[in-house]
Amino acid sequence: MTASSVGSGHAPAVARGVKLRRGRGWRELEAWLYVLPGLAVFAVFIAYPITANIVASLFGPHGDVTMANYRQASGDAVFWTAMRNSAVWVVLCVVFEAAIGFVLALAIEMYIPRGRVVFRTLLFLPMVITPSVIALVFSTIYAPDYGLLFGVFDSVGLGGHFPAILGDPATATYGVIAVNVWQWSGFFVLMYCVGLTQIDRELLAAAAIDGAVGFARVRYVIWPLLYPVTTSLVVLGTIQALQQFPLIFLMTEGGPADSTQTLATYIFQTGFVLNEMHYASAVAVVLFVLSLALIVVQYRLGRERRAHA
Amino acid sequence: MPRTSAGARLAAYLVLGIAAAISLVPTIYMFDISLRDATDSFSPLLIVPRVTFANWVAVLAQGNLTGFFVSSALVSVVTVALTLACVIGLSYAISRLKIRGGQVILLLVVSALLLPLASLLIPIAKLLELLGLTNNYLGLIGPETALGIPFGTVIVKAAMDDIPMALEEAARIDGAGSFAVLMRVVVPLISPSLIVVAIWQFLYSWNEFFLALVIMTKDAVKTLPLAPLYYQGPFMTDPGKLFAILTLIAIVPMAAYVVLQRWFVAGLMEGGVKG
Description:
The complex is a heterodimer of chains A (309) and B (275). With 309 residues, chain A is mostly helical. Chain A has helices at 11-21, 24-57, 68-74, 77-111, 116-124, 131-142, 148-155, 172-197, 201-209, 214-225, 227-243, 246-251, 263-273, 277-308.
């Protein structure tokens, strides 16, 4: 781009110049050439699989059209465990990651004079570590008798009461969720930091004159201003929580006794371990519909809150 | 920044210090286990005073990890390049060339932002088998590119929307075709957003596990995220070596992020966080 080519209003020449070059048909065709690669990849690896998945879920093992896969799901106790766990995953991850992210971002952007880049970076680092590595490290941290957490319990004389977090069906899911929160909170911090830096400082100053200081400033000025960020993060966090696979697969394999199965791990279990592809497809459709529904609801809520803000 | 009291500042530093420690401790612990000799392997301490480099020497001498690294680098680099190409093309046609049906295309692509990979995995696996792409890098590159398109398009299209039309029209009058305008005017202007998409997509591809687990069953083509699973068995009783390998895998994206975070954050700030 050259500076001389910018500006100097010759609007009529623009229309003529463009029209002179080539016809309308060519320009339309040209535009399609640009979208072609993206649309092709999208069609093959997203649109087709979605359709194929829905179709497969409607077939029985002998090629008969049936709702049997969905009936099977409704009577399958493990499926309902997976549903419940997926719900727990979404709620706990989103709530904790957003809360931690908001508080820490506030501390970074509003309360410290130096070291912002350092904290943003340090807190984000867990995000970039390969989840399969994280899974093995945290399995060791949780390990009874020699793990780091056991060491902490032991050092305050509670070694004898150390719980086998991942071995107990009552706590295993929460143990894995904690790791997800550990990994993803830094992402929430960074996004809230970006949101905070874009708040108009004069607006804050004006609010302060109106008496919005301290907690009131956070609650009634900053938090509402960040609704758009929160909405995006809640949607992203929901998808991410529903997607989580490697942590569960490597830390508990869905066990003990299927107590940590989520829809994502159960699709793998039924489809690729038990080889019940049609049943797995039905579970996959449920996951797809569920995520779609959740996200539409969250967007609606986000918009409403913004409208009332 | 508004004025804050010394007490509030101190409290903020304290909270942030604790949070930063929590996010670093697992990495420090991982690294320390890689420096322990067999007698200390199962000590519940964060840091064991006795240090040995034997595990690292053994792991580096074996050199088995190179294959995993090469696979991951290849898949990630190609995936990032293809994703950028697809995303730029889509955004350009929709935002600047005003393709007919552009809004429909955008809605279609963006709605896939909400798709969990798990709900696509079975048909993708079957399709790749049909195409003979199981155990082939393209079997990862294709789906990963597709899954990167929705997020990338949201970011890049928004960035392109912010470019004043007059800039392009001026270039057109100078005789530039649409591709020249794209490369010389549009791409340089949206480079901060492109960097965000590239870094995000690289991290996603570099760390992708689920798809790789299903598609890459032959050891020769496995990517890095599968390496822990591969070494977990043989090194079950030898955590020092296993953790040297884990550290080696983790250190690459961590170092890369420390170097690149400036551009990543700058790109996010420039693009804003759109609701």
